[in-house]
Design goal:
- This protein has 168 residues and is mainly β.
- The protein has a single domain, classed as Sandwich (Apoptosis, Tumor Necrosis Factor Receptor Associated Protein 2, Chain A), CATH 2.60.210.
- Helix content is 13%, strand content 52%.
- The protein contains two helices and eleven strands.
- The strands form two sheets. Strands 2, 4, 5, 6, 7 and 10 form a six-stranded mixed β-sheet that branches. Strands 1-3-11-8-9 form a five-stranded antiparallel β-sheet, with no helix packed on it.
- The longest helix has 16 residues.
- It is globular and about 45 Å long.
């Protein structure tokens, strides 16, 4: 006789499957390369789940480094990190990005980094004219101010990054 799995086991499996799907990074733009599905034309948009609660709860920085597999005209976002500007001020974050450019031409890149909750923007910052030279890292840092109403609830966010190559 075949034994039926318990409802608790089924719920655990469904939860694990939904968590795996939620943890995925999504990338999109107007034109995607057919030969290389992770290469996009400018502008490219990346979205990923984000939990910044370690910043407000313990003052610890948070880094996202699983975005580099996607490319916008040869420019990869290797890492984006968030850290508190000062221990006493939880509303101000320092946003740092690290870009890598494939072999070829130097690039100039504009980026916008937004934190979303339920589809709405709670904070955003623009990083303009980043000089991303061929086969090297380009790092840029900018300050982001969080609304006072969101400082104590920074879990369950969506990281929304738009990368635009403005010059080859």
């Amino acid at each position: 006789m075949r034994r039926q799995p318990s409802s608790g086991l089924l719920l655990a499996l469904l939860w694990a499957a939904s968590f795996d799907a939620f943890a995925q990074v999504s990338a999109r733009s107007g034109v995607q390369s057919e030969a290389r599905p992770n290469e996009f034309a400018s502008p490219m948009i990346l979205e990923a789940p984000l939990d910044l609660s370690p910043i407000t709860q313990r003052g610890e920085p948070v880094a996202v480094s699983n975005l580099g597999e996607y490319s916008c005209q040869g420019v990869h976002l290797r890492e984006i990190s968030f850290r508190p500007k000062a221990a006493s001020n939880r509303r101000e974050l320092v946003v740092s990005v690290v870009l890598w450019t494939d072999k070829g031409h130097d690039k100039e890149v504009d980026m916008s980094v937004s934190l979303l909750r339920d589809g709405g923007v709670i904070a955003s910052v623009r990083l303009l004219e980043i000089d991303a030279e061929e086969k090297s890292k380009a790092t840029e840092t900018k300050r982001m101010v969080l609304p006072a109403s969101d400082v104590d609830n920074l879990s369950g966010l969506t990281l929304h990054v738009e990368i635009a190559v403005t010059a080859d």
